[in-house]
Amino acid sequence: MGAQYEETMTIPFAVADVWRRAIDVINQQPGLAGVHTQPGLLSASVNTNWRSWGEKIAVHVDEAPGGTIVRIRSQCAFPLQLFDWGKNKANVSRIRSGLEPPNKARA
């Protein structure tokens, strides 16, 4: 199996709101080749670039007490690619940043 990176986060908003935001964030990813949706799952492909043979991104959105659990995974499209030079982590971090709620203003 090729290189991959995954993170899970909990967002204190309704599933429908997080789902809409996840679609927007995925569609803004650089080098996007296509997006597919299934209930609770967004999957996308990223084109080949100088650091990898492309990646497969999956965003799972599930209801949880007090909010929504989101699991974000990026893995190399070529299964024998063992090094990704940080590309998968960068994909996950970019999506995570787009989904995180804005910081509350400090008093």
Features:
TATA-Binding Protein; five-stranded antiparallel beta sheet; alpha+beta; 107 residues; single chain; elongated
Short description:
Helices cover 24% and strands 38% of the residues. The protein is α+β, with helices and mostly antiparallel strands and 107 residues long.
Can you describe this structure?
The termini are far apart. The longest helix has 13 residues, at 15-27. This protein has helices at residues 15-27, 87-99, and strands spanning 4-11, 32-38, 41-46, 55-64, 67-76. The mean pLDDT is 91. The protein is an alpha+beta fold and 107 residues long. 24% of the residues lie in helices and 38% in strands. It is built from two helices and five strands, in the order βαββββα. A hairpin with a 2-residue loop joins β2 and β3. It has a single domain (4-99), classed as TATA-Binding Protein (2-Layer Sandwich), CATH 3.30.310.80. Strands 1-5-4-3-2 form a five-stranded antiparallel β-sheet, with helices on one face.
